[in-house]
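Suppose a colleague, Dr. K., hands you the sequence of a protein chain of 478 amino acids and asks what its three-dimensional shape might be. Before reaching for any lab equipment, you can write down a predicted structure in token form. Begin with the sequence itself:
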Amino acid sequence: MDCLTSLKNNPNFQTVPEEQLRWLVDRSDCHEHPTGAILYKPGDPTDHFLVVLAGRIRFYLIQQGQQQEIRIAEEGALEGVLPFSRMVESLACWQTTEPTTLLRLHRDYFREMIQTQFELTQILVHEMTSRVRETTRTLQQNDKMMALGRMSAGLAHELNNPVSAVIRSSHTLKTHLQNTPQRFKDIMALQITDEMVDRVSNLLFRKVADQTAGQRLTLMERSNREDELLDWFDDNGVSDGEDLTESLIDFDITTDDLDTLLGDVMPDNRTTVLNWLVNNLVTERLVTDIEQASKRIAVLVEAIKSYTHMDRGTGQECIHIREGIESTLVLLKHKLKEKNIQVELTVPDDLPPIEAFPSELNQIWTNLIDNAIDAMNDGGHLQITTEIDHEFLLTHIIDDGSGIPAASIDHIFDPFYTTKPIGKGTGLGLDIVQGIIRHHNGRIYVDSQPGRTEFKVCLPIHNGEREELPEQVTEADE
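The predicted structure, expressed as tokens, is then:
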């Protein structure tokens, strides 16, 4: 292949003099690669500027065990390290999708290029800025889609339990209500005084008012209560008592309650009265289960609406910071439960509102809390507090995880820098956080040692004139 002719025909080099293209060819080498060849893996050093003379290269990341394609480099593309670029190693996998020929120039020639090949250098610097802008946009979009995927999976997981409870309880209630006409017929056949009806009703309403009483019993207490009820049934001529004990215990009905309730009822009628009582208790319990599950669904839906602010405008609003933090914790609850992480939230209700873009602030809480969860072991402790600091709201997010290495703490806000394993993060989360906080005229600080990492987010209460904040982002700089 005639490399010089290929470069002259390359649209990227239309304004570059031929002698500069010849300079590039003379100092480069040409390599041919078969289909499917892996040119670079994440972490491999990148020491060459590359021109795709023929073929195609696919760039992708491994995220959550799956390949996430970033882009495709076609014939004529300029790839690899460029003059003034800070690229040291590859962030992605490079794989050819067809036979590919590459022209490679080692970075050792960049100094000479900058000093002597002006037009060529100008083209490559322009290419570098365009590439950074496009790559950043793509990775940010991928990062958002991954976050959305994690949030959706968590929401589906959280919704599954209450939805299943509603379906299960509704089915059980439907079957259970089929017995109600017969129970009612049996009770109507009895000669019951008004006093008896009042006693049954009062007991029913009293026990329904505190449905958790039976749940507070230990296993030993429940076992003893069951034995006592069964003995009472035997002594008082109640048949099929085994079927009644569980519901009676759930509502904390004791043998003393039964003595008061059925003391003056004929022995032959006691089973009928108890069946009617238990039938109503079971109905009440199923309705309560459906109500609680439905409320849980409503809470999750409200958290989503609050998190996305889907029913509000897209501009700045006066918001209470607690609302966004709580909705974020609701949506990340599945991850907190997976690691059995305890959350201590101290955000006073009387804090003044701040002027902010709500959905942007929620990205801050999501990134910081999600990172804290990833850093902690099972049984960790997450502490979130907010307080007034002069004209600002200062939010502390503290975890007891492994901490940030000292060598990394000054770089954690750099784009594409990550301490997570390959495929677990793009290195854009904290860069996005810092950008959003600056957009709100705030600052973020970090202090970390093994066992304690603290991020402090400082946001102005009034987004107008304010006292100047220091520029530092790490406690070590203070």
